[in-house]
Amino acid sequence: MKNQKNVTNNGISNGNHNEITSASIINNKSQTNRAGLRVYKIVILGDGGVGKSAVTLQFVSHSFLDYHDPTIEDSYQQQAIIDNEPSCILDILDTAGQVEFTAMRDQYMRCGEGFIICYSICDRHSFQEAQEYRKLITRVRLTEDIPLVLVANKVDLQSQRKVSTEEGKALAAQFGCHFYETSAALRCNVDEVFYTLVREIRKKELQKTLSNETSSSEKVRSPRDKRNNNNNNSKWLRLRSIFALVFKRKRSNN
Ligand SMILES: Nc1nc2c(ncn2[C@@H]2O[C@H](COP(=O)(O)OP(=O)(O)O)[C@@H](O)[C@H]2O)c(=O)[nH]1
Ligand SMILES: [Mg+2]
Q1: Within-domain flag for 7
Q2: Is residue 2 part of a domain?
Q3: CA distances from 226 to 27, 110, 127, 143, 230 (A)
Q4: Greater model confidence, 57 or 207
Q5: Better-predicted residue by pLDDT, 108 or 22
Q6: Ligand 1 contact, 70 CB (< 6 A)
Q7: 99 secondary structure, DSSP code
Q8: C-alpha dist (Å) from residue 50 to 27, 71, 110, 126, 231
Q9: Closest ligand 1 atom to the C-alpha of 57?
C-alpha cells in the first residue's frame, strides 16, 4: 500500500509525503509545486465502505483493491494534462472519517479547492449521508459556491442497487453540481470525476480573477482586512505543524 502513495502518472513516487501534504492541504491559497506545476487540492468525502479509496486508487494507480483498510486516511498525487492546459498535479486527500480527526477535517474542508462526495448505489444510508457531507462543507466554507462532484459508486453491482440514477441526478441538481455513476471495480467514469472537478475549480478561479480585476480598481484594503489576513496566515502555519505531526505519528504507527 505504502508504495502507491504520491504516485504520478509517469510513475514517480514523491517520497516527501508529509511536507507536501501538510503544506498543500493546509495552505488555503492556490499553489504550485517545485517544478512549477499547479497543484489542485481535492478532498474525497463519504460514508465508510462506499469506495472512496478504491476510486482514488483506480485514478492514481489503475488498480482495484478488494480490501483497503477503512481507517487509512491518506493523500495521493497524480499528474495530469486536462484540456490541453499545462500539466498539473491533483493532490487528493482520501478521508476515512475517524472521530479523532474531526478538528483536522474542519481544516481540510476549509482548505480543499474541490470536493468529491461519494455514496454507494447499494447503500441508501450512504446516499442520505451525502447530504450531510454537503451541509458540512457549506457550514465550514460559509458558501454553496464550492467546486463539487457527486459520485454514485459500485454501478457494477446492479442487482444490489438501492439508489436509482434519477435520485442521484436529483440530488446533484439540488447541490448544483455534476453527477457521475462510477465503478471503481471496472474503472468506469473514474477519470471523468477528477477531470470534471479540476475544470470546475478552474472555472471558479477564472470567475474570481475576473471579479477581483473589476473590484481591485475600486477597492482599497482596510487596516482591519489586513489584520484579519495576518491572523489567518499565522493560524494556517500553526495548523500545518499539527497536521504534519499527526500524519507522521499515524504513519510510524502503521
Ligand atoms: N463491486 C465493487 N466493489 C467496490 C467498488 N468500490 C469499492 N468497492 C469495495 O468496497 C469496499 C470498500 O471500499 P473502500 O474503497 O475501502 O471504501 P472507503 O471506506 O469509502 O474508502 C472494498 O471491499 C472495495 O473492494 C466498486 O466500484 N465495485
Ligand atoms: Mg478508505
Answers
A1: no
A2: no
A3: 18, 20, 42, 22, 6
A4: 57
A5: 108
A6: yes
A7: G
A8: 28, 13, 23, 7, 38
A9: 15
d(Cα 57, Cα 44) in Å, to the nearest integer? 12
Lowest mean pLDDT among 25-29, 210-214, 248-252: 25-29
Structural domain boundaries, residue 102 = 12-253
- Grid cell digits, residue 36: 512549477
pTM: 0.79
Residue 188 CB–ligand 1 contact under 6 Å: no
Compute, in angstroms, the gap from residue 233 CA to the centroid of ligand 1: 38
Pocket test for ligand 1, best of 61, 183, 186, 190 (most atoms within 8 A of CB): 183
Q: Which residue has the higher pLDDT, 163 or 69?
A: 163
Whether residue 155 lies inside any domain: the answer is yes
- For residue 186, the CA-to-ligand 2 centroid distance in Å is 18
Task: Pull the grid cell for residue 173.
Answer: 441538481
CA 21 vs. chain centroid, Å, equals 12
* φ, ψ dihedrals at 75, nearest 5°: -125, 155
